[in-house]
Automatic annotation (TrEMBL):
Protein name: Isopentenyl-diphosphate delta-isomerase
Predominant location: cytoplasm
Family stated for the protein in its record: Belongs to the IPP isomerase type 2 family.
Binding site for Mg(2+): 157
Residues in coiled coil: none
Database matches in InterPro entries: Aldolase_TIM, FMN-dep_DH, IPdP_isomerase
Reaction(s) catalysed (UniProt annotation): isopentenyl diphosphate = dimethylallyl diphosphate
Documented EC number(s): 5.3.3.2
Organism name: Corticicoccus populi
Record: residues binding substrate: 11-12, 97-99, 156
Subunit structure: Homooctamer. Dimer of tetramers.
Compartments (UniProt record): Cytoplasm
Keywords: Cytoplasm, Flavoprotein, FMN, Isomerase, Isoprene biosynthesis, Magnesium, Metal-binding, NADP
SUPFAM superfamilies to which the protein is assigned, alphabetical: FMN-linked oxidoreductases
Amino acid sequence: MNSELNIRSKRKDQHVKHALSQKIDGDSDFNHVHLIHQSLPAVNLDTVNLNACFGEFEFQSPIYINAMTGGSEWTKSINRKLAEVAAAVKIPMAVGSMHAAIKDDSVIDSFKIVREKNPDGIIFANVGADVSPADACYAVELLQADGLQIHINAPQELIMPEGDRDFKNWRENIIETKKAVKVPVIVKEVGFGMSKETIQTLVQAGIKYIDVSGKGGTNFAEIENRRRFGQDMNFLFNWGQSTVVSLIESKPFQNDSFILASGGVTSPLDAVKSIALGANAVGISKAVLEKIQTDGVEGTVRYIEQFIVHMKKISVMVSAENIQQLQKTPVVLSAEIESWKRQRNL
Ligand code: FNR
């Protein structure tokens, strides 16, 4: 194994290890969003249909396993299990960053296993915004992917001593990559959330699918600090916009783009609140990773099946029988979130 690959593989393993041991802050912004209980729901649970059809995508359920792993032996086994879960419950799945596979054939299997285990499922390839259009096409081809996620993770790069420092070319590269690949492109954050300025830039660049991946769950500011025990930028642990705030920031663009929610989604209630704030589907990373580690494939299949049933039950309680109705369901926001909204003219 060459030394660059060795560093990447080790980093991947460390990300998983630290993500699993990370404690999530108890006060989630999802607690600042209230759905309105309806005592006379005109809905039959058996006919609630949460198919998520938006743009070129058709998801049987509105949740997906978001990008995490691949690139090492350990993460290959995690990818295999995640793919088995995704195939069993028929939800889309993204792999983690494919840089290692682009650079070195010896770790390709840790990603390809996902397609082997889930030949008919919806799978997203994943690259960073600095990867060349040709390499992005290669990543898509490796997985016969149905979509390409391009992650934007500037704070993570800046915190890593070995990370990128120059982001001037990201926007152009995203535009060129979108032109080059033959599948839909989803631009995603990695847990720092998005602003209306970022979303506007993406929409103007022609990006239709945007995963705001907000603060509130996996925290890469903390992970990157802990990885080197340096704590040199530990004042950034609270950096970014929560998923709730990011969805509110996305409001002006929800007619021009398809917004996806992720970041700190730990319950069916969080997922339904995300949809009520305008998301078309909801990505989960850490909660699924934890489940796989503790309860294996069967336990995680049960967890996701139940998650979807519980989302349907909450839909009944707000008297909505599909995603479109859920997206229109009213919400009440806390004074804090309302103040953010006001100050940002949203
Ligand atoms: C991630 N995430 C991520 N995202 C990405 O686009 N490419 C990647 O390679 C990774 N790697 C990765 C590893 C691990 C161990 C975790 C937990 C997460 C970020 C992920 O897709 C998501 O945006 C955030 O984790 C927020 O969601 P959760 O974890 O709070 O549900």
